[in-house]
Write a structure and sequence with these properties.
globular; alpha/beta; 8-stranded mixed β-sheet; homodimer
Amino acid sequence: MDKESLMLTIAVLGGTGKEGKGLAYRWARAGYRVLIGSRSSEKAVTVASEIIELLEGAPSVVGTTNRDAAEQSNIIVLTVPYAAHRETLESVKDLLKGKLFIDVTVPLVPPKVTKVQLPPAGSAAQEAKEILGEDVQVVAAFQNISHKHLVGEGGVDCDVLVTGTSKEARAEVLKLVEAAGLNGWDAGPIENSVVAEALASVLIYINKQYGSTHAGIKITSVDKK
Amino acid sequence: MDKESLMLTIAVLGGTGKEGKGLAYRWARAGYRVLIGSRSSEKAVTVASEIIELLEGAPSVVGTTNRDAAEQSNIIVLTVPYAAHRETLESVKDLLKGKLFIDVTVPLVPPKVTKVQLPPAGSAAQEAKEILGEDVQVVAAFQNISHKHLVGEGGVDCDVLVTGTSKEARAEVLKLVEAAGLNGWDAGPIENSVVAEALASVLIYINKQYGSTHAGIKITSVDKK
């Protein structure tokens, strides 16, 4: 654990879902303090103890309410179904000022989850930006990583496209991508979050079409310096 | 050249641009009859002769006007800058009924080409569908293949996401993807064209950011049967 991760606490709101649990596991493993948030703190406590068990140790993972997790953290990650996106954001909005917010939400509209149906704001992340206002840095990331990849030791054959309201915020999130054992790319301004969010429907379609369960993407023909 | 390609003529409208020329080259090499269309038939004739020269032979590549190319072909491919998208479609609309239309257009809005700025219809391909009406099958493809990859013999390290108004039309286009020496995926309904079109801005951003010139994508963790 380096000096910086010692100082950082990550809240994973909606962290009792599969994706949130997977990300919380990866960051706890990397030495970050992680607060699992949920509408029900009881459920969050259960998931926190499951992660501690997976890690066979006593990392700093705590289950609590969404508001408590948001209040105690510098970095707030949201991993809820799209139907709960606005409501959850409104419920913690006052606690996010001056902080870094990471939106993992994919705006799927059941039952047609294989068809791209983006919200009027352009993407869920742009909607979050509208709700949270200018005082919050909003970054979109991790939408295409299958939760099956996250809870496990193996490498992950899917890149993370990181888009957001400032280059500095994207750089912060790229560190968290790396800490989670994933490969990330600075993919530009928050408007570009459309790609990763819409790609979720395309990957679900490809999974069904070609008999896979965890299709992903890789950026090709670029060498990182 | 198989039986089927003998029967098919492909029009590449705006085929004097780099992307159109590259695709025309690939299909001519595979044995298709290709008509290069342009507003200026003179320019189209020049590009056709350049392709014949590249292929060191006398394949069936002819330069003509956009309208003439569209009229003589079963498959019409559009590769124009977005600014000319609507105008070109309106100019050939009456000749496309009952045919297969492939939109390669990327809705970039200069000067901010690294920022996703999709049209009100959702994507250029959905805009084409609105313009052309129900009698035309509309498929979106090839938006992310660098023209540098196309004119040359090497493999192409970038997949083609094929989206469109019917599964049959997508299957037809997947054959053309293969004929061009590329790897394609049925990526679902025409609404999903958002991904490949928006990805164009993200790839341009990544090229600038990481010092590349032809970033692409690959779908991972799926085996084609």
